[in-house]
Amino acid sequence: MASWGLLVTGASFAVFRGLHWMLQLLPTPGSAAQDSWKWRNICVSLVHSLLTGVWALLGLSLYPQMAADPINGHPSWALVLVAVSVGYFLADGVDMLLNQTLGQAWELLCHHSVVVSCLSTAILSNQYVGLCVVSLLLELNSVCLHLRKLLLLSHQAPSLAFSVASWATLATLALFRLVPLGWMSLWLIRQQHQVPPPLVILSGTGLVTVGAISITLGIRILVNDVLRARPCPRILGYKETGGTRRYRDGELVARDDATLLLKD
């Protein structure tokens, strides 16, 4: 079973790297031309989030035993889903290393390393697959995050579409990110006697890392997109600070590179 999971991981890696390459052959929207690599990278991430997020939700709906027994209760296709995600995160890490400096990419690379370590443990042991499928519900929130970021790169903020994306991001962050993270944390605390100590440490580190990033990002989106939604007059000599918005030729531009910190 482990060899089958590794084979699917390799195939997924090749497919997502191929998708990165194919997007280089397609024109980037003019409004996002200055950030063409970032546009392509987020488009690939959007494909992964749509695929795995919907797959995980349908799978848990049709096979709730995975939540009842997250250690051993899973069908074979659940392992395939986990392997597909591992292949994506490896491909995304390679894409970042090829197009960014280590200083620019280290935060996301650390995030990806934690996620790959957790998911790979399930593939190699053929256990905890149900827990990994629950964790992939987070990708439903990532769909909204990526759409919101694409709108930012296209200079569509502020707009009705951007407002809808922002509110959808906040709603799905609570429902499909914080709720699953809370459930997994409680499960790990209650069942820690069944889980080997190294896996408790690894899983706990992953939950704390993703949870902290999720809460921080939710606060930033709430502040930048909702509380500061009203345009303000351009002030000469205004100095931009982290997390603030700036005006360029009268156009409101949101500084929101922090969104890229959350691509799971």
Mean pLDDT across all amino acids: 85
What Rg is obtained from the alpha carbons, in whole angstroms? 19 Å
Kindly report the spatial arrangement of strands forming the biggest sheet: 1-2
Q: What is the overall silhouette? A: globular
| Beta-strand residue percentage | under 5%
**Distance N to C terminus:** 25 Å
**Helix-strand sequence:** HHHHHHHHHEE
**Helix content estimate:** over 70%
Unreliable sequence segments? 232-261
Strand tally: 2
What this model shows, in words?
It is a single chain. With 264 residues, the protein is mainly α. Helices cover 71% and strands 3% of the residues. Strands 1-2 form a two-stranded antiparallel sheet. Helix 1 packs across helix 4, helix 4 crosses helix 6 and helix 5 packs across helix 9. The radius of gyration is 19 Å and the shape is globular.
Q: Top keywords for this entry?
A:
mainly alpha, 2 strands, two-stranded antiparallel sheet, 264 residues, 9 helices
Summarize the structure.
By secondary structure, the protein is mainly alpha-helical.
What secondary-structure arrangement, pairings included, does this model have?
Elements: H1 2-24, H2 36-62, H3 65-68, H4 76-99, H5 102-125, H6 129-135, H7 138-153, H8 160-190, H9 197-227, E1 245-248, E2 251-254
Antiparallel strand pairs: 1-2
Helix pairs in contact: 1-2, 1-4, 2-4, 2-7, 4-5, 4-6, 5-9, 7-8, 8-9
